[in-house]
Amino acid sequence: MLLTGVVNGFVDPLGKVHDPLFGLYYSSEREQKSRAVKYFPHNALLIGSSRVASINPDDVDCPGLTFFNAAFSSAQPEEIYNFLDLYANDVDMVVIGLDVFMFNEKHYEYSPRTFRENGFDDLGYFFSANTLGYSVGAFKKWMRGKEPNCKSNGQRNMSDKDQRDRGMEHVDYVETLAQLAKDHYANVHFSQRRIEILSDIERLMQDRGIRVVFFWNPINNAILEMVRSDRQMDEFYEKTKRDVRQAIPAIADYSGPEFSGSESFYKFDPVHYYSAVGAQVVKQLLADSGSCDQKQ
Fold first, then answer.
1. Which of 74, 229, 276, 280 has the greatest CB tally within 10 Å of its CB?
2. How far apart are CA 250 and CA 262, in angstroms?
3. Rounded to the nearest 5°, which phi and psi values hold at 27?
4. pLDDT one-digit tens code per residue, 151-166
5. Residue 287: which pLDDT band, with cuts at 50, 70 and 90?
6. Chain centre to alpha carbon of residue 108
7. Three-state secondary structure readout of the chain
8. How much is the pTM?
9. Predicted confidence band at 198 (pLDDT cuts at 50, 70, 90)?
């Protein structure tokens, strides 16, 4: 048992006490981000849904700012507030990417307490056989050269997705579009309280002296055409864009034609843009808002 405790304490595969020796291969993305943010040196946060999670902060060149990518799959405004309330303290800037689907409370239930900062008090973690299994598994993955699910700077590991994309010659969105119509835009329940949370986020950051900028993620033309073809979807889309603009007048909108072509997105996935496209969007946002100029 003592040896198990020593190995688990040294490797810490879930990153509960220190930066995992071999990287984060296990736990959910939400858990990964709430742990990795404590270990990676940064003074700026990038947060949003899985679209934003693909962006490599190393590709966002802004003098004086080092970003950690805190984004996680299907992030909702109340979860973003929760994360920032706990982990956005000693930072100079927060960049938040929004998607229209975030404001459909029918599909994504309201979750205000996803993250909790209780400290570490589970000594059983060190002496657990399950933890030892994670430690051994992380070592094996590391030895095989497999990259962790979450890089140290918070970027989601996109290598498998990139490899699949390179193996495709043509765009194929049929299945994904059908699922989107069913999950994200049909039978919607517009969430007014999530609109209000955006203002709460802005006030929280202002109270802490942190600059915050919001932007709309690029949206694939194929998805936009689907939305426009259905009255309920279209009304939900327009209302969301309009109400968010009223709450956050300075929000930057990159859902227009510049980044909406299929060349900006994975060939099998119209939802997620390439990492390089996301980095370009954030760099343009920082330039347009003067955020980098003031750091030089």
1. 280
2. 27
3. 80, 160
4. 999 999 999 999 999 9
5. very high
6. 16
7. CHHHHHHHHHHCCCCCCCCCCCCECCCCHHHHHHHHCCCCCCCEEEECCHHHHCCCHHHCCCCCCCEEECCCCCCCHHHHHHHHHHHCCCCCEEEEEECHHHHECCCCCCCCCCCCCCCCCCHHHCCCHHHHHHHHHHHHHHHCCCCCCECCCCCECCHHHHHHHHCCCCCCCHHHHHHHHHHHHCCCCECHHHHHHHHHHHHHHHHCCCEEEEEECCCCHHHHHHHHCCHHHHHHHHHHHHHHHHHCCCCEECCCHHHCCHHHEECCEEEEECHHHHHHHHHHHHHHCCCCHHHC
8. 0.83
9. very high
Tell the residue number behind the tokens 């299945």, with chain if given. 175
Task: Set out the domains of the chain in order of their start, with CATH numbers.
Answer: 42-109+156-295 (3.40.50.1110)
The pair of structure tokens assigned to 64 is: 């004086």
Sign of CA dihedral 80, 81, 87, 89: positive
Distance of alpha carbon 286 from alpha carbon 105, whole angstroms:
30
Residue 263 structure tokens: 């060349």
pLDDT at 10 over 90: no
The values of phi and psi at residue 40, to 5°, are: -90, 125
